């Protein structure tokens, strides 16, 4: 599955209005502005404030490079998923597009759809390559080929409504272990408050719980062995235990009514409207809940707290192990050379600092770290700065076929429709099938 951060599903009229308000070209039926070279940039960001920052950067680049036009093209999440594979094989392919990395990016690279950026990024003194956090480049390198330009890092953690926690008599600093977390959920529920905003409709938001529990129970050794086809794979006892712990959470009925049909934007709205005490979400959850709240304002920033996914007593993983994204810009094979020059400009320290100060990203550009000024974003940045293992989203890292099963199984386990053992077996079967 694909993760869209800070987005909401728009109908045709709202998409048209969004395009008119921001001056963007909608991909379907979009025409190219007259220019010597047009760079087609495909994205799925719906926050107009963020898009305006990108447009300003692009305008600045155009002013310095007469004859080059940067055309921003937009697709909403589901259309992106449906159309991108076909687009990449067509004459309408974008020159660069947003990527979540992992197995999906690796697969796109294997099909020959993408440009190998290794030579370009290592050219001359390698200054372009050295301008990024080394871990970000490593995470986008497959078979010694750099497949995309790093853009941002992210991590998933818990955000909570301080007022609702206080009403329930729960102190977030006391939540150190999974057992502590379950106790907090029970206490919040006993106070007549929905403990968690859950997004079961798109499934991938629930996979965060299963993934983190696998990481906490088994550690990197178990997960790496499983994804490399070693040992018991996803039938490892630690993986099954993670499923049992997820099932235990599900039995507490911790989510809002109808969560199995809730999209991620709707889930953010539940949290932003104060209808659930916490949410397991991305680093920019504060901005996203505001965008998706019924009143467009959401919770005040000083009413939102943050804590890491708790440890599991006796588990091999550390509480400092993080799950999250490594997002990048993938360049298509026939993109004009100016595309690489623009991407180097878009992701340089100065521009990444601008985006970070706006609360848009946790930057990967070396020297841009001081741009993270938002307290909650800074908390996530601190997590990443001290991570002992940063794991890309399981459903991305394992590729689309296995990832889809991971998401399905996570929802089935938490909702009591599948046993943890059967869930682990299904993921292992999908993995083995994918290797054929």
TrEMBL record:
Compartment annotation: Periplasm
Query: Could you confirm whether the keyword RNA-binding appears in this record?
Result: no
Q: What are the record keywords, sorted?
A: Periplasm
- Alphabetical list of InterPro entries matching this protein: Bact_solute-bd_prot1, SBP
User: An example Gene Ontology cellular component term from the record?
Assistant: periplasmic space
Q: Which residues form the signal peptide?
A: none
Q: Does the keyword Amino-acid biosynthesis apply?
A: no
Note the Gene3D superfamilies from the entry: Periplasmic binding protein-like II (3.40.190.10)
Write out the similarity annotation.
Answer: Belongs to the bacterial solute-binding protein 1 family.
- State the name under which the record lists this protein: ABC transporter substrate-binding protein
